Predict the structure of BACK domain-containing protein.
Amino acid sequence: MDFAKLYSLQSVLERCQGLLWRDFTTVSRQEEFPDVPAERVLELLDSEKLQASEEELVETMLHWARQQRGQRMVHLARLLGRLCLPLVDSVFFTDVLEADKLVQQCNNCWALLQEARLYHVYGREISSERTRPRRQSGWAEMIVVIGHNRSDISWTSLTEKLDPASGKWFPSATVPGYGKCEFAVCELQSHIYLSGGQLNSSDVWCLMPQLAQWVRVGSLQVGRQQHKKTCLRGKIRCPSCLICSTKSPSCHQWLSSMECYSVFENAWKPVAPPLLTVSSSALARCSGKLYIIGGAVNNDSNTNK
């Protein structure tokens, strides 16, 4: 590549660059790679066209740093900071990255490791440039739409997903036998959780993208509809809601309880209720706190709190 740059051989340079991006893992195993200067390595890691897994990149950077340990130790945190460490396999993270003595001796790497640990527990509550997958990684963020109304009385569990990169909608797995409305949906650790719905359903389903199917998980302790939920500190929070009488659906009652779901326990547990009982509110999390915004306090009025 240096030869092509020196003599302005643009076509040769482009072919070399393409080969480097496409076969980076193979190129990095060549004898010459450990001699590549730090700035050139950083430039490579910044490329969205790099076709290698984050685990392969971690091993390559550690190998590069070990070749001249005394001089390259100062570059280790910068190199690892260019990688998507929160997205590496959790077993690899524990057995390889955290266990590496070079990483353990680098104080500047501790913040990067802590960010990855928090991401493995809290999911997308932790956000930085390192939690965004590379374009060539095979990971893709999707927008998912669940359910629609075919008529006044017919609700379906149709699920579709939008790939923002291509701008195309694709069919996804439907919730088995779940023709309900007024349910709540949220995302936790790349899984989508759907709960409740008419009439006062306590069902909870989880869409697992790896399997492309819905799996039933622990049920709510109290059936809910017209409710919202969101994840906070690695758990799903489901605050107050509206419930209907099974004998007279037009008879409404506002429920003030809040439940919390733990993925590890696969169970919902009651937690402190909100100060104001509302339904159809908006939820937001910020700085480790849950904010409940607006909502209906009865059949005739809403709140601005």
User: Anything to note?
Assistant: Residues 54-67 form the longest helix (14 residues). The chain has a mean pLDDT of 84. Residues 86 and 116 are 4 Å apart (CA to CA).
